[in-house]
Amino acid sequence: MLSKRIIACLDVRDGSVVKGVQFEGLGHAGDPVSLARRYNVEGIDELVVLDVTATLESRRALVTTIQAVAAELFIPLAVGGGIRSADDAAAVIDAGADKISLNSAALADPGLLTALARRYGSQAVVVAIDAKRDGARYAVFARSGTAAAGRDAVEWAREAEARGAGEILLTSIDRDGTRAGFECHLTAAVSGAVQIPVIASGGAGTFEHFEDVFTRGRADAALAASIFHFAEHSVADLKTWLAGRGIPVRAVQSAPAPEGRRAC
Q1: What pLDDT is stored for residue 26 in this prediction?
Q2: Which of 13, 124, 176, 257 to pair with 24, CA 20 to 30 A apart?
Q3: pTM beyond cutoff 0.85
Q4: For residues 81 and 16, what is the distance between their CA atoms, to the nearest angstrom?
Q5: Could you state, in order of their start, the residue ranges of all structural domains in the chain?
């Protein structure tokens, strides 16, 4: 069985990390460069940086922030927010990102997924799906959770895979920031519908929540923000606990000093 990944997320607005509940009430949660440096050392498997207001403000993700964060890392970096074209994607890759995360733009123009997958490879193209329970289904939302997309989460995940996406970043809007646990029903439904990895996001609060989403939710990776940003839980302790419960995880290794990484 492949190792499960633990991923930290930096929601960035105006160059600072922010965090809210259900995509609202965003408050300051730290400096992105300092947090990236800490995660690089602590053994997080990957880092995601989302410029949460770039789409709403019709601009690209902040390249200077991406460059500064990338300079601190020897782990994969995915960046999302405001990527609406091949040129936007190129700017993010040139700034040091290893993966591109698309949400609203992919919904508006699914062909962009195919174009980017052909240019960078499917492994570099992540589709972010923000979903909210709507009766027996899960409705997809765009524009940082402010606009219903008129799509079903499971159906959209299938199409995104067919269009060339190599990974799904699946966020439960209902659980976001609540620390009440991942939405395992949603995660399992999407994981069972696609062959590509699914990252579960929204609701992490305890070690048990990670175990639950890796087993009952069938997630390939789990993403969290608040519990890591405020040092409530150690990444190493989480991995040790999961390994003790029979969940395969990547070993925590001493990270090399980031000096010398080149944004390319």
Answers
A1: 46
A2: 124
A3: yes
A4: 14
A5: 5-244
